[in-house]
Amino acid sequence: MNSIEQNGLNVIADKPEYTAKDFSSDADVRWCPGCGDYSILAQVQRTLPRLDRKKEEYAFISGIGCSSRFPYYMNCYGFHTIHGRAPAFVTGLKVTRPDLSVWMVTGDGDGLSIGGNHMMHILRRNINCNILLFNNRIYGLTKGQYSPTSEVGKKTKSTPFGSIDTPVNPVRFALGCGASYVARTIDREPKHQQEIYEDAYNHQGTSFIEIYQNCNIFNDGAFSQLTERDVKDDNVLPLKHGEPMIFGKESDKGIRLNGLRLEVVSLSDTSVEELLKHDESSQELAHTLALMIDRPGMPTPIGVIYREERSTYDDLANGQVETAIERFGEGDLEKLLHEGETWVVA
């Protein structure tokens, strides 16, 4: 594609002017009325027109679950694949078609239960893709069983006496697997979602985004403390790189480092200078922030938790292919299949 310069920015000259409607397919959206998935779909469709791509250069890949219906509702390329195996399809597609913008849509069950092993490897390899993990802390498609992220004591159809499992913390999981970009957003925060999706798109490497998403049928209100107007400001910590960690309805609370632990302080008796400043490049801080949701009385961080620039698997793999071609030539598949020892099967 040809680019021109406008106001100091490179703009794709022959890219059509898209709207969100251009990325909406003609398929009937089949999620329960009121599901948080609608908001996520809408914000992705509103974000893509701002990016420097033609819509045929996008591919959305999913596994199995409510979230994984996503590709049907996008007017671009996509696959609805196998339970938990979307990372394998994403890896193959991105390595063979590095020119595409590849997005993976999964849920807490699909991505962190049967797909946990595959998720681990796509994160550590740093495939240049964007992973949207919808976390509603329940199995919705199969009608309300507990999921890997369900809290201890959660009573469901499969845990009538309450879950005894320690839940997976998706952000801790991603950081532990070596993810180069980790963020969190909420289905009820449309503007914040769009900012995170665009930022993740511009990251070179695997972008892992945990999205708190309400299942109003089987787990309604799972994140109400983070979404209800009268309480959310006291329970959500917006992260901004280089800025002090301040939150609260009156912006009157902050996070301070006390030894090796974070603590909530009141700005009425603590100066802003004493507060911890967010640093997206600090892996140590990222792991500490990831632990906050497991500690009573601590707010939930949203925004970019960690960012690291490093080589991507797809670039390195294609670099090896180019080196091999330079050294040995293009190769001949037919010749390869018939050289060396062969057998004739009668």
Indicate the CATH class of the domain at 3-222 and 311-318.
Alpha Beta
Please state the CA-atom Rg, rounded to the nearest Å: 22 Å
The shape, in one word, is globular
Count of helix runs: 10
Q: Tell me the CATH topology of the domain at 3-222 and 311-318.
A: Rossmann fold
Strand percent estimate: 15-25%
Listing every helix as H and every strand as E from the N terminus to the C terminus, the arrangement reads EEHEEHEHHEHEHEHEEEEHEHH
Unreliable stretches (pLDDT < 50, length at least 5) are none
Q: Considering the protein shown, what is the CATH homologous superfamily of the domain at 3-222 and 311-318? A: Thiamin diphosphate (ThDP)-binding fold, Pyr/PP domains
Category from helices, strands and their pairing: alpha/beta
Main β-sheet, in a few words?
A: 8 strands, mixed
Quaternary state of this entry equals single chain
* Side-by-side strand order of the widest sheet: 4-3-5-6-8-7-13-9
DSSP strand tally: 13
Mean of all residue-level pLDDT scores? 94
Architecture overview:
- The chain is an alpha/beta fold and 346 residues long.
- Strand 7, helix 6 (190-202) and strand 8 form a beta-alpha-beta unit.
- The protein has a domain at 3-222 and 311-318: Thiamin diphosphate (ThDP)-binding fold, Pyr/PP domains (Rossmann fold, 3-Layer(aba) Sandwich).
- The strands form 3 sheets. An 8-stranded mixed β-sheet has the order 4-3-5-6-8-7-13-9, with helices on both faces. A 3-stranded antiparallel β-sheet has the order 10-11-12, with no helix packed on it. Strands 1-2 form a two-stranded antiparallel ribbon.
- The protein has 10 helices and 13 strands.
- The protein has helices at 37-47, 86-96, 108-114, 116-125, 170-176, 190-202, 224-227, 283-290, 313-328, 333-338; strands at 3-6, 9-12, 58-62, 77-80, 101-107, 130-135, 181-186, 207-212, 236-238, 246-247, 253-258, 261-266, 300-307.
- It is globular and about 80 Å long.
- 38% of the residues are buried.
